[in-house]
Amino acid sequence: IFIDMTVTEKTILTLLKKGYSQKEIAEHFKQDDSLRISGLSSIEKTIKSLKKQNNVKTLFQLGMLVEKLKI
Predict the structure, then answer these.
(1) In terms of DSSP H, where are the helices of the chain?
(2) Which of 28, 30, 35, 70 is the most exposed place for a label (fewest CB within 10 A)?
């Protein structure tokens, strides 16, 4: 679970944990040249992929898993 995550995935999870919306995460990525994606669609796809990889259906479940694993 959450093994070999990319910097992008870790950043998205960190920002979600801080309460950022997906739109706010996209804006954050646009302002940081070191992050590779910036479109809302790319953020949504990454979150969808993280949920699928970790066998959770909702953003809430993903957040609970992140908290449980101290990511």
Answers:
(1) 7-17, 22-31, 40-53, 59-68
(2) 70
Output the CA angle 37-39-42, nearest 5 degrees: 70
Residues 44, 1, 67, 36: what is their CA dihedral angle, to the nearest 10 degrees? -40
Q: Is 32 helix (H, G, I), strand (E, B) or coil?
A: coil
What global pTM score does this model have? 0.84
Which contacts qualify for 60-63: CB closer than 8 Å, 24 or more apart?
62/13, 62/16, 63/16, 63/17
Tokens of 31: 């302002």
**Beta-carbon neighbour count of residue 51 at 10 Å?**
16
